[in-house]
Known about the structure:
Elements (H helix, E strand, L loop, with lengths): L13 H36 L1 H8 L8 H57 L5
Helix pairs in contact: 1-3
Amino acid sequence: MRVTWGKAMTRFPAGALIDKLLFSAMLVGVLLAAFAALRYVELSNQLAENPAAQIRESGEAVQVDDAEAGYSLMSADIERRRQVAEQYNMMIIGGLGLALLGLGWLGSDIARSRRGKNPAKATNPSES
């Protein structure tokens, strides 16, 4: 059995593949930015309820009477530090999402402008 490559077997156009990749980059960018924004807001709400964060914002000194209260305040401060670090990470992820969105948009715009110039040259070769 012999396989022939004729008009029936066409290749997937490279322009469509590039368009799909760029659209995927934009979609992933939007999703990353939305996820990071929602998680950042959620962490801000958790920080507002954290007793160690409330004490830190007020700037007052705290007198701890027993070891159990000290341990609970210490664990609240460890949780506050984890939440603040995760907030910073969400800012980075959101920025990465916005960068992907921008690069996908820019690449799509460049690909569209190049595609717009090529058919004009191909259809009107006598004008050059």
